[in-house]
Amino acid sequence: MSRALRALLAACLLPLVPACAPGSPDPLVVLGPWTGAEGEAFEAALTRLDDGTGRTYTYEGTRSLRETLVSQLEADTPPDVAILNSIGELTEYARRGRLRPLAAETATRAYRPWAPTLLVDGRLRSFWVPLKVDLKSLVWSREGASGEDPSWCVGLASQATSGWPGTDWVEDILLHQAGPTLYSEWATSRLGWRDPAVRRAWTTWARLLREGPGAPVERSLTTSYEGVSGPGGPRGLLDSPGFDCTHEHQSAFIRYLYAGEDVRVEPSARYLDGRAEYRGAFEVSGDMAAVFSDDPAAQELVERLSGPVGRQRWRAEADPAVRPLFPTTTGLPPTEPVSPVEREIDALLTSRARTLCFDASDVMPPELRDAFHRAVLAFFRDSSEAHLTSLLEQLDTVRVEVDKVSGATRSFRPPEDICASPGG
């Protein structure tokens, strides 16, 4: 079934959708990572973006985003727009000629470090734009919990991408111990995994986790980052039975689990045995929109989604606990009062941080990123020096092999500068 036919059939299942009328243009298909309340809010914002343009939009939300997109590309039925969180994957699609360069107006919103430019056929081009972003270098705890002797909550299970909460730990530690320059070199494969600074980040993580009771190893390996589910859904690791923990290292998105509770958030730097000059550095992630279609309306949709109107409508549709954060607040009107947690995160993200660096594993090619995830899980079980040496050697082997297969040519260069000041 073609992409256009699939989208048209989906639209015709909805009552009174004008796209089903004879001669109407096909709905644009948007593939993205949001489901549940997040997906509903984004889909509602998409619907309100029509504004009489005559185009309608079909949103396909999935937790298996990479697998879904790969299968659609193999069937030559790509979405018009896809929203991905991996610069490594986006870079690969650009290298293979599957992405369309952004239109000029949208390219001005390709804020670094979420959207670095690529050298393609001798020209620096922008191929994706951040829609929603998150701050990662954060620690969550209960109000009143002492930060002097934390015991850490760790849940590493996440379906096909288990292990990423552990890679976030290693990345954040390396950023604060070695600084943005070395961090960037490592994330973009210009620095090997056996470098002493990289090894120290792994051993620091193991030492921090050994200092408190936390939870048994197998429980952490098999429990989701959302924690144990109760009658009302996920409870968060701070509330989950079997986790004797006081602090959690997790991205800003986790606030939906603790909305309205007596939970505080603070920068992670002071917990990571880092250097004082790097306390203003923060790791970030993002969900970026890229165009896979030659339909001009796909470019127009990304331009509207990334602009003030799209942002305002998305925020208006979203519940406070899943309200999106943006790379800059420029052009946004004041909103209704927000929680102290959201206010703190937004201030760090847009003004108080000195340097923002994109999530290192999401910069890496998918094969290397996946090997990193697996290595973290193996290290969590056995953090001995000998085992770590073996794991780092294996990761270096994968790094070299991936570089051979997808190495840069004279006409193409992947991004290298993945850190920037707030505001791009």
TrEMBL record:
Residues 1-21 form the signal peptide. It comes from the Bacteria. Keywords: Signal. This is Alpha-glucoside transport system substrate-binding protein. It comes from Streptomyces fructofermentans.
